[in-house]
Amino acid sequence: MSTHKEIKRITTQTLHDFKENGEKISMLTAYDFSMAGIVDRAGIDVILVGDSASNVMAGHETTLPITLNEMIYHASAVVRAVSRALVVVDLPFGTYQGNSRLALESAIRIMKESGAHAVKMEGGGEIRESIERILTAGIPVMGHLGLTPQSIYKFGTYTVRAKEELEAQKLLEDAMLLEKIGCFSFVVEKIPAQLAEKVAKSVHIPVIGIGAGPGVDGQVLVLHDMLGINKEFRPRFVRRYLEMADLMDGAVKQYITDVKSMSFPSNKEMY
């Protein structure tokens, strides 16, 4: 039985309890006050202030251009709207790779200036030192394995990762490493469902999937994808729960018609 309605504030411990009890974790992105408030009031467990803001909010081709200051701006707006969900913020590209001191400084800035509850970082063994240093400051870290969008130019494609045995084995080793060094959870993106399920069963911390099948401990989607705001991007793993772009298009066109025809404002819509 779900404890969804009884929990006043989701914490990292809550997510561990969900995994132990077999309750799936729901996670969505949000980047602004208004949308985050709607998502939180609906009862989502985790809100990710993703560096996908670089794509859906700023119009960049990749997640790489977004800055730490911009992530803090988005995270601050989200935190002000949220009363229940756990708020996790992506550390953007260039703020943690290869420099553990910079990683700690970046994470501290996010936590202090935005009020967020945790940070998320892409990679496994290659960023171990950065993760460990952040954890020493008492900052919860969520990992991210599989397709890591900040490495898109290395991969050269957004195709499914870890289909080959060597890459799959490294992913499994990285998953166990993330648990060992103290991450409270991690995301697996766009990997074979069978491998994702194996990973989830191999660790005691929650594994959140995106394009990784149902055998993991929870699911995450980009809000703009699942609401149908982002019309151009429709990968196989996204389920559309609304066609909001079409609804907004109709509303704006009706507004234009009403203004042009002078049917807006009416007598009831003025002072």
How is this structure best described in words?
This protein has 271 residues and is an alpha/beta fold. It is 42% helix and 13% strand. The chain is built from eleven helices and eight strands. The longest helix is centred in the middle third of the chain and has 17 residues. The protein starts with 11 loop residues before the first helix and ends in an 11-residue tail after the last helix. The mean pLDDT is 95.
Which features would summarize this protein structure in a list?
271 residues, eight-stranded parallel barrel, alpha/beta, TIM Barrel, 11 helices, 8 strands
Layout: helices, strands, pairs:
Elements: H1 12-21, E1 25-29, H2 33-41, E2 46-49, H3 53-56, H4 68-81, E3 86-90, H5 100-114, E4 118-120, H6 128-136, E5 141-146, H7 152-155, H8 165-181, E6 185-189, H9 193-202, E7 207-210, E8 218-221, H10 223-226, H11 244-260
Parallel strand pairs: 1-2, 1-8, 2-3, 3-4, 4-5, 5-6, 6-7, 7-8
Helix pairs in contact: 2-4, 4-5, 5-6, 8-9
Can you summarize this structure?
The protein is built from eleven helices and eight strands. By secondary structure, the protein is an alpha/beta fold.
